[in-house]
């Protein structure tokens, strides 16, 4: 029978602070220690247009490969994407995958990695094969045995020391051996001793090792299995959640409920957050995002309900992306304040590169062009229409603002980058606009790897920056037809600088 407290549980967190935007921006102040199972996520993308003669299976013609930090390492990626800082303690094997994973983690700004190497261990790798944006196969390589006692002792010592330098500790358990045995209990005891909050993202149905944690994050199925209670409705979640908290002396439970959102349950209160996803493409990594945002929120000293709500919003963002993705602070700001977000199509170069990767995973050709676009004229519009007609999505990069001069050429001041970006974003042919601080677009071209590079026909192909690189990886260089000067002059606003 449901008690009165559960029956009065609000269906929406009406008592949350209203300024979620300020709360989201405060996440960049967080410093989080992540201890857990690091993995390497590998993706092979290509086309499968024929069946093998050797067996009735599709033949994947690989066109691109991508490697990303996965598992607990993906939690770290999400923390860094918010602008926060992370210390990461984990294990890799003495193999090529371990070296690759160590390099991927080490090159991220804001991460202090402590990746111990166990010689006899195999680094966990999840390899996915995709054709035309659809999964064909996933292959896992793993060695989920507990750590060698000496390695475990060293890991515990390093993690305990790192707790003192961070605001909150997150245990990301993927049942690959790092948090096997009594390791979680020892880490929880260490956190309690120095007064640091500790969060657990658990795996399996044995929760005794997590006793005494401040927050635990089961999904609905795990909650039902551990407590033996139903976990379908809001009322069920509250009752089962409080039973879990009482049994294992845990402070709060954030229960993920798939398409039903999340519920935050404490001994006294409960909040139910409806799902925030606008469109669902891939749920991979969403739990890592929730864990990262919750930990960053607690590290920034936000109220737990606010941190949970931000985590729910971030989960809705990442499931709308393809592959193991992250929720950047700009993504969250755009969701909370749409009038200043991605609805304007103006993004950072990093966000444009990330979006291009998602587009390509769906089999779309990505085009790129760069210029100043000081004042748009019909010639610009004509060129951009040609570019968009030759690809599925078009990204335009513009030059940043120049230092002010007493007098510009022709006696006319150049326009601000923000105004130029707004003009371009209003064109249907343009899908994304970003502002480049660098004088040359080459660095972005090399990272973006566009399928199509576009410049005006007045440029010789040998003079187009990045043309040789694009051609080398199988891309196309388009020298777009220019309108006669007389036609350009009919535009309402005339521009002297040419693309």
How would you characterize this protein structure?
The chain is α/β, with parallel strands linked by helices. It has two domains: 4-340, Ribokinase (UDP-N-acetylmuramoyl-L-alanine:D-glutamate ligase, 3-Layer(aba) Sandwich), CATH 3.40.1190; 345-488, HUPs (Rossmann fold). Helices cover 34% and strands 24% of the residues. The protein contains 17 helices and 18 strands. The protein has a nine-stranded mixed beta sheet with strand order 5-4-1-8-9-10-11-12-13, sandwiched between helices. The longest helix has 15 residues, at 149-163. The chain is globular and about 75 Å long. The protein starts with a helix and ends in an 11-residue tail after the last helix. 45% of the residues are buried. The model is unreliable at 1-18, 406-412 and 486-499 (pLDDT under 50).
Quick recap:
The chain is of the alpha/beta class. The chain is 34% helix and 24% strand. It has 2 domains: 337 residues, UDP-N-acetylmuramoyl-L-alanine:D-glutamate ligase, CATH 3.40.1190; 144 residues, 3-Layer(aba) Sandwich (Rossmann fold).
Give short descriptive properties of this protein.
17 helices; UDP-N-acetylmuramoyl-L-alanine:D-glutamate ligase; 9-stranded mixed sheet; alpha/beta; Rossmann fold; 499 residues
Give the mean pLDDT: 85
Sheet having the most strands: 9 strands, mixed
Provide the low-confidence segments as ranges.
1-18, 406-412, 486-499
Distance between the termini: 71 Å
CATH architecture annotation name of the largest domain: 3-Layer(aba) Sandwich
Given helix and strand content, the structural type is alpha/beta
* Rg from alpha-carbon coordinates: 26 Å
CATH superfamily of the largest domain: Ribokinase
Share of residues in helices: 25-40%
Shape: globular
**Number of folding domains?**
2
Placed side by side, the strands forming the largest sheet appear as 5-4-1-8-9-10-11-12-13
Number of strands: 18
The CATH topology of the largest domain is UDP-N-acetylmuramoyl-L-alanine:D-glutamate ligase
The helix tally amounts to: 17
CATH class of the largest domain: Alpha Beta
Residues in β-strands, percent: 15-25%
Function: Catalyzes the ADP transfer from ATP to D-glycero-beta-D-manno-heptose 1-phosphate, yielding ADP-D-glycero-beta-D-manno-heptose.
InterPro entries: Bifunc_HldE, Cyt_trans-like, PfkB_dom, RfaE_dom_I, Ribokinase-like, Rossmann-like_a/b/a_fold
Subunit structure: Homodimer.
Family: In the C-terminal section; belongs to the cytidylyltransferase family.
């Amino acid at each position: 029978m449901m008690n009165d407290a559960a029956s009065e549980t609000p269906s929406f967190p009406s008592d949350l602070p209203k300024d979620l935007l300020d709360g989201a921006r405060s996440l960049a102040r967080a410093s989080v220690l992540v201890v857990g199972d690091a993995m390497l996520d590998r993706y092979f993308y290509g086309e499968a247009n024929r069946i093998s003669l050797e067996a009735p299976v599709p033949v994947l013609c690989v066109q691109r490969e991508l490697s990303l930090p996965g598992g607990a390492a993906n939690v770290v990626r999400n923390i860094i994407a918010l602008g926060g800082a992370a210390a990461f303690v984990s294990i890799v094997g003495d193999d090529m995958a371990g070296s690759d994973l160590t390099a991927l983690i080490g090159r991220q700004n804001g991460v202090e990695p402590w990746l111990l190497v166990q010689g006899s261990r195999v680094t966990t790798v999840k390899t996915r094969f995709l054709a035309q944006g659809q999964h064909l196969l996933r292959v896992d390589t793993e060695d989920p045995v507990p750590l060698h006692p000496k390695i475990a002792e060293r890991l515990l010592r390093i993690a305990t020391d790192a707790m003192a330098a961070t605001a909150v500790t997150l245990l990301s358990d993927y049942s690959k051996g790092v948090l096997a045995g009594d390791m979680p209990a020892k880490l929880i005891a260490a956190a309690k001793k120095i007064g640091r909050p500790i969060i657990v993202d658990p795996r399996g149905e044995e929760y005794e090792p997590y006793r005494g944690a401040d927050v635990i994050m089961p999904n609905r199925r795990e909650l039902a299995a551990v407590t033996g209670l139903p976990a379908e409705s809001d009322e069920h979640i509250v009752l089962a959640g409080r039973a879990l908290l009482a049994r294992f002396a845990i402070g709060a439970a954030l229960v993920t409920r798939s398409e039903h959102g999340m519920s935050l349950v404490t001994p006294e209160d409960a909040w139910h957050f409806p799902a925030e996803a606008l469109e669902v493409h891939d749920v991979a990594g969403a739990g890592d995002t929730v864990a990262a945002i919750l930990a960053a929120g607690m590290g920034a000293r936000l109220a737990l309900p606010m941190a949970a709500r931000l985590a729910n919003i971030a989960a809705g963002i990442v499931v709308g992306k393809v592959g193991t993705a992250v929720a950047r602070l700009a993504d969250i700001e755009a969701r909370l304040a749409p009038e200043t977000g991605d609805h304007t199509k103006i993004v950072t170069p990093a966000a444009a590169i990330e979006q291009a990767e998602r587009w390509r995973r769906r089999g779309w050709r990505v085009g790129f062009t760069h210029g100043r676009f000081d004042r748009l004229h019909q010639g610009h519009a004509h060129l951009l229409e040609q570019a968009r007609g030759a690809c599925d999505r078009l990204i335009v990069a513009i030059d940043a603002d120049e230092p002010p001069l007493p007098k510009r050429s022709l006696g006319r001041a150049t326009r601000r980058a923000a105004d130029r970006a707004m003009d371009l974003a209003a064109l249907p042919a343009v899908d994304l606009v970003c502002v480049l601080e660098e004088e040359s677009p080459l660095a972005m071209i090399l990272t973006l790897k566009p399928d199509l590079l576009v410049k005006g026909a007045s440029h010789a192909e040998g003079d187009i920056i990045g043309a040789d690189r694009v051609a080398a990886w199988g891309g196309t260089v388009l020298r777009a037809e220019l309108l006669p000067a007389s036609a350009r002059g009919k535009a309402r606003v005339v521009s002297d600088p040419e693309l």
